[in-house]
Amino acid sequence: MSDYLLPLIEAFEANADAEKAAPMKKYMRGQFEYLGIKTPQRKELQKVFIGEYGLPPVEDLKEIVRQLWAMPYREYRYTALGFLDRRKRYLTPDYVPFFEELITTESWWDTVDGLAANQVGGVIGRFPEIRDEHIGRWRQQENFWLRRTTLLFQLRYKDKTDAELLYALIGENLEDKEFFIQKAIGWSLREYSKSDPTAVQQFVASTELSPLAHREALKWMKNKGLIT
Predict the structure, then answer these.
(1) CA of 200: how far to CAs of 33, 155, 156, 207, in Å?
(2) For the chain, how many structural domains are there in total?
(3) 111-148: string of b/e by CB count within 10 Å (b at 16+)?
(4) Is 160 domain-assigned?
(5) N or C: which end of the chain has fewer CB within 10 A?
(6) Domain-located, residue 216
(7) Residue 116 DSSP code
(8) Tens digit of each residue's pLDDT (9 = 90 or more) over 123-136
C-alpha cells in the first residue's frame, strides 16, 4: 500500500458508520461493501486530505488508483474517480487500456458511467485520433459495460457529438435486452437532445426503440415543453 494513501484510509475508517453502510449496500443490490460514508462527508474528508497531502503524484496516479480500486469498500473507488478527475489534464491515450481495466473490474453503473463520460470521453475528446481504435474494439465486445461506455463517452460533448457514430452504436444495440444498454441508449439521446432536439426527435420517430430507451430519449424535451 502506498504511504500516500495511509492517512486517507485512516480518516475513512475513523468515520465508518455501519448503520449508514447497510442501506448503501442495499441500494447497490447487496453487491458491494460500504464504510457508510455518504458523498458530502466523503468529499469533505478528501478535501481535508488533499489540503494536507496534495493530489497523487502524476507518475504514481495509475498505481494509487489501482490500489484504491482493490480496496473492499466502494467509497475508495469513488475517491479514485475523484483523483482521476482532478488529474484529467495529465490523462493521455496510454490511459485508455487502464480505463478498460477499471471498467471491467466489479462493474456497475456507479463506477462505469463516470469513467465513460469523464475519463474515456475526456481523453478521446482531447485525442480524437484514438477514438476509432478503442471505440471500434469496445463496440464489438460481449461485455455490455464496455458497450455501455461506447454509448456514453460522448455525454459531455454537446454540439460536438458525432451523431452519426452515436446512431450507429445505438443501432448495433437495439436488440440487446440488457437494462443498462437500453438505459444508456435513452440517456445518450436525451443528452444530445439538449443540443439538437430536432435531430433526436427525427431519429426517435424513425427508430424502433425499446419503451425504456424511447421514454428516456424524450424525457428532457417533454419536461421543457418542446414535445407533448
Answers:
(1) 39, 14, 16, 10
(2) 1
(3) bbbbbbbbbbbbbbeeeeeebeebbeebbeeeebbbbb
(4) no
(5) C
(6) no
(7) I
(8) 999 999 999 999 99
